[in-house]
Amino acid sequence: MVIYNVTSNMAQSLEKEWLEWTREHIAQVLGTGLFMDARLTRVMVEEQDGSSTFSIQYKASSREALELYYEKHAPALRQEAVKKFGDRVLSFRTELDMIDEYRVTGNMN
Asked: What predicted TM-score, i.e. pTM, was given to this entire model?
């Protein structure tokens, strides 16, 4: 499995608009059929400039699925973000190779 991570930073005043748009964007990315699920998270760090940082993690079943996403879908979807937010949102992308995954089941108390 491969995790495609997109980290985005913006002025706090843009947060609400970006979150609304991002929820639709995530649905579009998942709609490609190339990812199994996605997680939207807030990066828990206090930026000195008061900005907000978020991370979206998309889980792909294989490197090939991610490459297909890059080839067929990423350019248009990224362009939508640029058109909407321009340089008001700074994003960078990383790829993570899933080695192991662990879950806790049952009562944790």
From this structure: 0.90
